[in-house]
Structures are given as C-alpha cells and as structure tokens.
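ARCHIVE RECORD
Type: protein–small molecule complex
Small molecule: adenosine-5-diphosphoribose
Source of inputs: curated submission
Record status: active
Notes field left blank by submitter.
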Amino acid sequence: MRTQVAIIGAGPAGLMLGRLLDLAGIDNVILERKSADYVLGRIRAGVLEQGSVDLMHRAQVADRLDAEGLVHHGTDLSFDGDRLRIDFTGLVGNHVTVYGQTEVTRDLMEARQGETIYEADDVAVHDFDGQPYVTWSRDGVTHRLDCDYIAGCDGYHGVCRASVPAEALTTFERVYPFGWLGVLVDKPPVAHELIYAHHERGFALCSQRSMTRSRYYVQVPAEEKVESWSDERFWDELRLRLNSETAEALQTGPSIEKSIAPLRSFVAEPLRFGRLFLAGDAAHIVPPTGAKGLNLAMSDVGMLADALIEHYAEASQAGIDTYSQRALARIWKAERFSWWMTSLLHTFPETGRFGRRIQRAEFDYLAGSRAAQEVLAENYVGLPG
Ligand code: APR
Ligand code: PHB
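STRUCTURE (tokenized, with ligand):
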C-alpha cells in the first residue's frame, strides 16, 4: 500500500487533518488502534473557539454544529461563593461555542472519504528521516504502508512521539497533584453559561453539552478512585463548592458517565522530525481549566494541513519547515493561560494560607479591572492563529 500522508490516530486531530487533506485531493490513510465506537464513547471537553468553528466550516462538517452548538457570550467565575461574570462579547467582541468533542469527532467520522483502518495493532513508524513507512497488524496479519509523510495525531500515549530518539526531543512538564472527577447527566444545565468555581474544598466546574445534558466536575486528589464516588457523594460535594443559589438550582440525576482525568501541562519540542510531524495531544497537554486541548489540536492540524497543501500544490517546503515553530508559538500561549487559570481556581495544599490569599487577591483584581478581564477573555475565546 502507498499513500501521500499516513495519519496515526483517529481522534479529532487525525480526523480533521484527514478531512482537510481529502478536500485538497491529497491521499491519506488513518490508522487507529481502537474501534470507531470506542473513540466515540470517550467523553472529553466541549468548548470551541471561533477558530475551531471556522475550521469545521472549512472542512464542510459544520451543519450540526451550526444547528446545535450553543453560543456563549461569557462565563462565570465564583470564588468562595462570590460571582464574577466575564463578558467575552462586551470585552473583546468574540464568543465561544459549546459543542462536545464527541460530536466534533462524529461529524468528522461521518464525512470521512479516505480510508480509515480501525483496530490496527502494534502500529510502528519507520525511517522518517528517509523513506517513511508505517507497519501494523490486524487479525494477526502484518501490513505495510509507504508514504511521503507521517502525521502523529495519536494522543499523549501514542507511538509517534515515543519513536523519536530521546536526544532529538525536549519535553517540558508539570504534573498537578489532583485530577477532575467528571459526571455527565441528562438534566438541563444549572446556568446559561459555564461556572468556574474556586472553593476551599477545591475547584468545581458547571458545564454543559446541550439544553438537556450537563457536565460537572470537582477537583479530587490525584490518587482518588472513581469507585469511591457514588452519585450522591458527587452531588453533595459539588453543591458544597458552589454558591448557595446555584447549589439550590442544581438539577441532579443518575450519572451517564463518570471518570477521573489527571491534570498535566506538557509540551514536546520540536514538532517535526524529518518526515514525521506531531499534532494535538501527541505534542502537548494542557490542564482542562481553559478548555484549550481540543482547540489547540484543531489549530495544529489547520497549520499542518496548510503546510502539506502548499507543499503538494507548489512543491514548496516553506510551510513544512516553519510548522513546528509556528504551532509552538501558539501552543505556549495556551499553556500559559491554562496554567494560570488552573493556578487561580484550584486548591494547592502545598501553598497554604498565603497561596489562598494570593488567589483571592487575583480574583478581586479581576473583579475590579477591565484590563484584567480583557486578558482573560481574549485568551479564553482564543488568540489569533
Ligand atoms: N496507534 C494507533 N492509534 C493510536 C495509538 C497507536 N499506537 N495510540 C493512540 N492512538 C489513537 C487513540 O486511540 C486516539 O483515538 O490516537 C487517537 C488520539 O486521539 P486524542 O487522544 O483524542 O487526541 P487528539 O486527536 O490530539 O485530540 C486532542 O483530545 O484529550 C483531548 O483535550 C484533548 O480535546 C483534546 C483532544
Ligand atoms: C467540559 O464541558 O467538559 C469542559 C468545559 C470547560 C472546560 C473544561 C471542560 O474548561
């Protein structure tokens, strides 16, 4: 088998890259370790920057997003019960759209024209400094795909970054001593917009997927087990961390999904090794506090697609040569913002009383400063590519 671009991973990054290449007439094959149903069963984030919405339009997969996506003109912060609304539209003239990553993935899967090989075992990438090819096995038979380029869109635990020689890669990492316990429930959201809440007991987030489906999170210690959290315990803990009006308005019900995600900041540099590129979670992880993970994956593959399209159309190396540097410039800004929002809103046992008063001072500063709110708003809605 031969193709122009072999894409490893059928998450949102791999599927969006495949779609953009398909539309440009560039042959590509996606190799995914799991089944399509498994990929669609993962519950992930749900806030799209306008740049991601624009990319969905460019990819001609935005019909459902246009019909069902919820435009949010602001978000709420809560600190020990005190509320502050950040008015994105009023502050920076832009907004975000609430639409689940699962739905983005489904829309891209349905539109897919090129070949996707699911349940590909033992995927391995070879010779990306020369004539690259990919091997995998299915049902005990080994296959080989020769290609011009390999796009590593295989997430944090993928094979592509792991295949780069250690001396060629620099990584930057911060692991937080807590995770987010998330619950999905078929009840209307507690508020029109999201609520990011700081409380002495820990962070909480009220999010949503639609007018009838909500997503809630509470900060838990990193070693916590999801089995220790009955639905009742979750709802009780969430209520404690919200202000009393919100807690009273909360509509609870049986969870339809419950899981714990660890929090991590991570960046690998560079993002290109000969004919291998990294994009999305394969290249970087942000803590979910700023809702940047999916949006960064989208902006990476937007840039990578443009670089490959320019290369095939004009025999140019320029986009390919600068992809890593351009993507990393945007990635680090999103890393900074996600780290900052995480620092403001979570409890950090090791920073003690001084740390909490600094967090309170930061919140009060935000509440009193339009300039500070603009900084938050322009980062949250997404910095220009
Ligand atoms: N071979 C083939 N496929 C693999 C391999 C492998 N060795 N390892 C991982 N994969 C697949 C995974 O099964 C997954 O479907 O790669 C895909 C990577 O998808 P994601 O983890 O969703 O990563 P990405 O597409 O970059 O999307 C980033 O996901 O975690 C969120 O916050 C993050 O929203 C962001 C988005
Ligand atoms: C979510 O809805 O899952 C979500 C929303 C905002 C975030 C993180 C997660 O910052």
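CURATOR ANNOTATION: The longest strand covers residues 170-185.
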